[in-house]
Specification:
Rossmann fold, seven-stranded antiparallel beta sheet, flat, alpha+beta
Length: 685
């Protein structure tokens, strides 16, 4: 895709302006605030419209204007496309109206949604990125520098989620999430089907019983009358015997109640004894432990003096650390100043005050003096740095020792509090001993009463057993009588019902066995998803990310080395794409970089990301277009010179570069200059 022309009407600082953009390297030049970045936002808005949280209508339409539009002419392959998006201000917001689309001279009106689909199609963006179209454009074509710094310093998980979307590999995570949802649904389905099988065993057993009942019923139906007569005669005799036995049973029951009460009380007392013994044993352990702790506490020496000495040494060490760090910073500032003086003196030919030619001997003498000062600074730095490192190690050891002493003091204080309870525990132990003694005395008395009642119980014991046997015989004969009567009254009907129930049970069992087979199949599928499928998807994502990380690392290092000429400063990214900065083999914080180094880091990250994505999505139609917005912010003169090499390395058909640095003008093929006159931005010759 090549951008040919942009028309702006009531867009931010523009009233009516037409900007024509040629192929090659194009510089949008002008002072800060002259309207250069508005052109870039206009291109993005024309392509993708309002993007919530990124590109709002209120931030584009000129203040005080009711309507406005952006029209962009692009060339995609051999097709000429003109996109026009219209904005309208309502009372509380700015909204998009229907857009105009012209393709090879054929114009039609489209809704915002229809235009969105066309843009994605003509740019050949994958359908899978329909909801993240802004990400692909922002990380391959145009990324505000601050946005790139933000993603570099973002939370690791957020950065990885964003990059997954940018690389179009978040599908793996979606597949895993969908797999988990599907597994959950499989489990619910199995749970539902298992609920249908909960009575399968019961139904099988029931079927066997009903078949057996059918056989038994046919056998018993022939001779029910004879057993019934015999049972009724036996029941009459048993009832007479029970009346005599019942009189003596009442006496026996009273004795049983007394014995039961005594046994309950004895059980309670024995339980009390057990509780007292357990508590006494626990008190013994506690008293023994407290006495040992008391012995240990007496042997412990006072740590206050040692703690005071360590705190004093720690304070002095930290003061010395600050002094050394300030000295090293001062050395570095002086070194930079002398280097600038050396650079200036090497070019000095005439005195800036008297305008006379500076003698060569005088200039060389000054340069020699500066070099001596630089050598002295280098020696001072080499002398101070090892001392600072050793001091930091000593401080770490002192802090660890101080924490150890503090913890020991806490333990000693806690021990003193616990030792106050020693007398209380010993007093409680004595009380428990007295309580146990009283309970044992009561138990002895209860045992004597129990033995007396048992003597009475033995007299009636056989009677009770006989009564129970008589009752069992009576109940059994009554059950048999009732059963025979019920069987005789309705057995014929029962046989008919049993046949119907047996048929119904067989049908239900067959259906449930089919469900059991279906559960087995679901379990096999679930096992495959949990043990094989998820692992394969995670491995696929990991392999893709490792490949992307390796490619990204090479490009990231390449671009940074081109921008920063410091053999001691190296960069790379870890597996989470977090930038790692090392200086002379030591990892340093991003905030310790200079402004130019931070900008170089963000630009290198931006260019590496651009090339990796374009390599992955090789068929997208924006891969031959690159937009850089103020990529040299904070650059030194040397870094600005290196931008020439960077721009030469960028093999794109169209590179749009926004900068207010005049030196960049010599690096590009075309220059478009902007200026603001009375709050209105214009192109100037």
């Amino acid at each position: 895709m090549i951008i040919k022309k942009i028309k702006l009407h009531n867009i931010r600082s523009y009233l009516d302006e037409i900007i024509e953009l040629p192929k090659g390297k194009v510089l949008l030049s002008g002072d800060i605030g002259s309207g250069k970045s508005t052109v870039l936002l206009a291109i993005e808005f024309a392509l993708f419209g309002i993007q919530k949280g990124i590109l709002e209508g209120a931030s584009i339409l000129r203040n005080g204007k009711k309507e406005g539009y952006i029209e962009v002419e692009i060339e995609v392959g051999k097709r000429k496309v003109i996109i026009r998006r219209n904005l309208k201000r309502d009372k509380n917001s700015v909204t998009q109206l229907n857009a105009l689309l012209t393709v090879d001279g054929n114009q039609k009106k489209l809704t915002v949604t229809e235009l969105k689909g066309f843009i994605l199609q003509i740019l050949n963006y994958p359908i899978s990125i329909l909801k993240k179209r802004g990400l692909i454009y922002r990380y391959t074509v145009y990324t505000p520098q601050e946005d790139m710094k933000r993603i570099m310093l973002e939370n690791t998980e957020i950065r990885l989620d964003t990059l997954r979307k940018v690389f179009d590999i978040d599908k793996y995570k979606r597949i895993l999430n969908n797999s988990e949802i599907f597994i959950s649904e499989l489990k619910e389905k199995q749970k539902e089907k298992k609920g249908q099988l909960i009575d399968l065993t019961f139904k099988k057993e029931n079927l066997k019983k009903k078949i057996q009942l059918k056989i038994e019923a046919k056998k018993k139906i022939e001779n029910l009358n004879s057993p019934l007569i015999k049972l009724q005669h036996e029941l009459t005799n048993l009832k007479n015997e029970l009346k005599e036995e019942q009189k003596n049973i009442s006496v026996l029951n009273e004795v049983k109640i007394k014995i039961a009460k005594i046994e309950t009380e004895l059980e309670e007392k024995n339980s009390n004894i057990k509780e007292i013994e357990e508590e006494d044993e626990e008190l013994d352990k506690m008293i023994k432990g407290l006495k040992l702790e008391l012995s240990s506490l007496k042997k412990n020496k006072d740590l206050a003096e040692e703690k005071f000495e360590i705190e004093d040494n720690l304070k002095n060490g930290k003061d010395n650390e600050k002094i050394l760090e300030r000295q090293l910073v001062a050395f570095k500032i002086n070194k930079e100043k002398f280097l600038q003086d050396l650079k200036r003196m090497s070019k000095l030919r005439f005195c800036p005050t008297c305008k006379q030619k500076v003698p060569l001997e005088h200039r060389e003498q000054i340069i020699s003096d500066i070099n001596k000062q630089l050598e002295k600074i280098e020696k001072d730095v080499k002398r101070k740095e090892p001392g600072l490192l050793e001091l930091k190690k000593d401080l770490i050891k002192l802090e660890a020792k101080l924490r150890e002493i503090t913890e020991r003091e806490k333990e000693i204080a806690a021990s003193k509090i616990r030792l106050k309870n020693l007398h209380e525990k010993e007093t409680k132990k004595l009380k428990l001993y007295n309580m146990k003694k009283e309970i044992m005395k009561k138990i002895s008395e209860l045992e004597k009463i129990k033995e007396f009642e048992k003597t009475t119980f033995k007299k009636y014991k056989n009677l009770e057993e006989q009564h129970e046997k008589t009752m069992e015989i009576l109940e059994e004969k009554q059950r048999r009588e009732k059963k025979i009567l019920m069987e005789k009254a309705g057995f014929e009907q029962s046989l008919k019902n049993l046949r119907e129930e047996i048929t119904e049970l067989k049908d239900e069992i067959n259906q449930k066995e089919i469900i059991a087979q279906n559960i087995s199949e679901l379990q096999s599928f679930q096992s495959f998803l949990e043990q094989n499928f998820s692992a394969v998807i995670e491995l696929m994502e990991k392999q893709v990310m490792l490949k992307l990380n390796a490619e990204f690392n090479l490009l990231f290092k390449k671009w940074f080395m081109m921008l920063v000429d410091d053999s001691h400063l190296e960069v790379r990214v870890n597996p989470e794409f977090t930038p790692i900065i090392e200086q002379s083999g030591y990892e340093i914080n991003y905030n310790y970089l200079s402004g130019g180094e931070k900008t170089a880091l963000a630009l290198a990250y931006r260019l590496a990301l651009n090339q990796v994505i374009n390599s992955m999505l090789s068929k997208i139609n924006t891969r031959n277009l690159l937009i850089l917005d103020e990529p040299t912010d904070g650059f030194s003169a040397e870094q600005l010179n290196k931008m020439r090499d960077v721009l030469y390395e960028l093999k794109t058909e169209q590179l749009i570069l926004v900068s207010h640095e005049s030196k960049i003008e010599s690096f590009v093929e075309h220059i478009i200059k902007f200026a603001k006159q009375g709050h209105i931005s214009k192109i100037i010759e």
